[in-house]
Design brief:
Blueprint (H helix, E strand, L loop, with lengths): L25 H7 L6 E5 L18 H5 L1 H9 L3 E5 L18 H9 L3 E3 L6 H8 L6 E3 L7 H4 L3 H11 L3 E4 L23 E3 L1 H15 L5 E5 L8 H7 L5 E4 L4 H7 L14 H14 L2 E3 L3 E5 L8 E5 L8 E5 L1 H12 L3 E5 L12 H12 L4 E5 L1 H9 L8 E2 L3 H8 L5 H4 L5
Parallel strand pairs: 1-2, 1-5, 2-4, 3-4, 5-6, 7-8, 7-13, 8-9, 13-14, 14-15
Antiparallel strand pairs: 10-11, 10-12
Length: 425
């Protein structure tokens, strides 16, 4: 296999037919139910990062700000709103480290209204608090993952969530968890005798990502990075049927290099997926898709921020050295490919961008997307989003996705359980 040399007007990037939502949105919800008399259970993704030292200071409130449009709409319509969310990864039992308490103050500030928090998400305390709600009030439930029934999508837990909150309508604005069939994202809808709709954020996510792969303005380019090719195989396979160009970066390039018989030194490798990588390269060639791998890399003698580094072509990685970023020649070619594209989807960093010595590739890709002003640019995945934020380029992107796993599954063409549960418009 020959190595290929590589390495705002938002709506302009989509064809008109792709802008239509397939599921009920907020406007449809308000037509089906008088929101001023409704008690709306809304699933949000308020899983914000907290300071590791004190465990209570919110270090990034992006996810809180992202749901303000939906919350504001419901409150303006005088709905009483009960918020369900998760925070962190508790093991199905109450854990003070994962309480939603730190969210209350900042959420109240953003909504410009008092948020009342209860100490559970089901049970008598929830019934008491929600039964006392008046128009335009907000109750925040405790972490739904404090109950094992949440992630198991247990029908009894889902029923309690619906009954104890007294919900007469449901809204899901938690795109980041929509790919999980959990009780609060899928199961609860079965027990609410009222409409189920997507929020503003959910609609925006679906509109951008689905349109990017179903009816893009071409050329369509996917940029895929990250550590493991195993996590990206389904999306690479899917994008090979949709893309004109695929740019591959991150540590997963070395699994491809091994499949091509190139030296990889002590770089990260997934031996179990070498044959799969070879198959993907062959599939790209057969379909005429330009799958571009870096031709030069930044290597280091050890995995450390102050390690000795060199730039070498991919035929010359010495034993004992590991690749930690794409090189300058690859950056140039990747940037040129991006500049020629009209729709661009990016998921995964090009290198270990947490270390300054290995951040140039990732930040260069971010800058190339920012410079592509006549293209639709979509960034998904925690690390990619973090890089764009760190580079202060988030406002230059058409869309920043709030859900890495969910966005990947949409790119693969999968239906998300949290979306499938909603009513048709």
């Amino acid at each position: 296999m020959m190595l290929r040399r590589a390495t705002r007007v938002v709506s302009r990037g989509f064809r008109a037919s792709s802008m239509r939502s397939m599921k009920l949105g907020l406007e449809g919800l308000s037509q089906k139910v008088d929101l001023s008399k409704a008690r709306v259970l809304i699933r949000l993704d308020l899983n914000v990062p907290l300071d590791k030292k004190d465990g209570v200071t919110i270090t990034d409130d992006t996810r809180l700000r992202a749901v303000v449009p939906t919350m504001s709409y419901l409150l303006e319509k005088k709905a009483s709103v009960v918020v369900a969310t998760h925070l962190g990864r508790p093991k199905g039992a109450p854990d003070p480290k994962f309480s939603v308490d730190p969210i209350v103050e900042r959420f109240s500030e953003l909504l410009k209204t008092k948020v009342t928090k209860v100490d559970d998400c089901i049970g008598e305390s929830v019934k008491k608090a929600t039964d006392a709600m008046k128009q335009g009030e907000v109750v925040l439930l405790e972490n739904v993952r404090f109950h094992k029934g949440e992630t198991k999508n247990d029908p009894e837990f889902a029923k309690s969530l619906a009954m104890d909150t007294g919900a007469t309508a449901y809204v899901n604005d938690a795109f980041g968890t929509a790919h999980r069939a959990h009780a609060s994202t899928e199961g609860v809808v079965k027990f609410i005798d009222g409409p189920a709709a997507g929020g503003v954020l959910m609609e925006k996510e679906l509109k951008y990502i689905k349109a990017a792969v179903e009816s893009p303005v071409r050329p369509l380019t996917a940029i895929l990075g990250g550590a493991k090719v195993s996590t990206k195989i389904p999306v690479i396979n899917s994008m090979l049927d949709k893309c004109d160009t695929i740019l591959i970066g991150g540590a997963m390039i070395f699994t491809f290099y091994k499949a091509m018989g190139l030296p990889i030194g002590s770089s990260m490798i997934e031996d179990d997926f070498v044959d799969t990588a070879k198959e993907l390269l062959e599939k790209a060639k057969a379909k005429g898709v330009a799958m571009l791998l870096p031709t030069d890399v930044v290597i280091a003698a050890e995995f450390a921020s102050d390690a000795e580094t060199k730039i070498v072509d991919v035929y010359s990685i010495p034993d004992g050295w590991m690749g930690l970023d794409i090189g300058p020649d690859s950056i140039k070619v990747f940037s040129e490919a991006i500049a020629k594209s009209k729709t661009i989807v990016w998921n995964g960093p090009m290198g270990v961008f947490e270390f300054a010595a290995f951040a140039k590739g990732t930040f260069a890709v971010a800058q190339a997307l920012a410079d592509a002003t006549d293209a639709t640019t979509i960034v998904g995945g925690g690390d990619s989003v973090a890089a764009v934020e760190k580079a202060h380029l988030a406002d230059k992107m058409s869309h920043i996705s709030t859900g890495g796993g969910a966005s990947l599954e949409l790119l693969e063409g999968k239906e998300l359980p949290g979306v499938a549960a909603l009513n048709d418009a």
